[in-house]
Amino acid sequence: MGDFTEPLGLCSLEDLSALLGYLDADTITGLCVPEDGSDGCSGVQDCLTRYTLARIDAADARAGDVAMGLDVSFLLTSAYLVFVMQLGMNILLKNVLDACVGAMGFYLFGYAFAFGHGHGRDSNGFIGNWNFALSYTTQTSFSGEEFATFGWHNFFFHSAYLLYSFFLSSFVYPVVVHWVWDSQGWLSAFNTKQDGYSGILRTGAIDFAGSGVVHMTGGFAALMGAAILGPRVGRFSSDGTVNEMKGHSATLVVMGTFLLWFGWFGFNPVALAGGAGGIAMLFFKYYTTHGAWDVVAVCNGVLAGLVAVTSSCSVIEPWAAILVGASGAVVFCFFDHLTLYTLKVDDPVSAFALHGGVGMWGVLFPGFLAKHDYVVEVYGAYGFGMDAKEGKRFGLLYGGHGQVLLVQVIEILAIIGWTCFTMGAFFMTLKMAGVLRVSVDTELAGLDITNYSKTAGGPSAHNGHEYEEDFSGHTGEKGLAP
Asked: Are 308 and 430 contained in the same domain?
């Protein structure tokens, strides 16, 4: 065989096969005499180079398929874990309806509003506008969702709840998703249309798993619903004093908390923050109630820790996760007291305090303790400058820029304004239509009795009390004790 630089025509296919070891003649011919009529190889080295590049391209394509399969498998596994979270609530049928109606709403409209921009099509920073009902689906078109579910279901018409679930999952929530998580969103840290910088203050909001997107949206929707629906009958005395209404079963609360905690791993790693929140709540309640241990409060503390860390979980150190979880429990107590005793809003399961109030604290936290190395790893080396260090695109306590914290505040205000406006208008419409609230008799008897067993009537146990009088003339809107 001649020199390696001599033309391929001077080398036999047998010689090349011997040189490459495992290639057959047809393979070499295809490499050196392309079917498209372009110039063939100029020598053995050129042939080897072409073959190597072809094999690299093939391996890269296979690796891409494997990576896509792993990504989809991870998302599906996360979705399965999140699905378990529905068992962690307190109203069974409505949770089933949440899954059913939410899935349909997100399929028909939600995905398009959240991520709807296709190849060669521009969406705006406010809302997506393409791929309704997944009409153009690729292997990369995948999304999951989960919402907070709220405790005023007990005196909420089924028809109204179905409308609420569909409206929230198909429109209100997807718009917020588009803002923060889609590469076209005006709040997104992944939106680099402006000369490689994020669109909002050249940094974008850091909300990795949704303290704002998921929890604030759900929490403020709960606040609007509870405020417009009005308190339960007997919640307040005529002088405005709050009457205690104990929950049904602490055992079920603990079981639900563990289910939620388990399912939360489908969102983000939460072991430290949840544990810190539970411990902080244990001792906080112990000292504020003069030596009483409250298992339900501890469960709320665990959940508060989970909500608080959801936004910053990808950009903070483990010790910071403990800090945000523990502080989240205290923030929960503040908003829980504010909602009931100051605003006089009856939120039966403290959904606003847990998801809205703690969610706000969770959104703020990256502005203080987001670490630059983690920001680069998650969001890429862009921001104010060429990388996170140059642009100081990290928390203030690490020496970062104040604009990072400012963007987090902007996200909070935007979500509050959008959710309160849309859900407030929605609930007011249902109220004026007379389909928002059940009658007082039905509320006192309990929807389990009136809607399922069909045995309404007679004395009914309601929050530890029995009512035998007729309160059919009571509107229930002010929640006054009968």
From this structure: yes
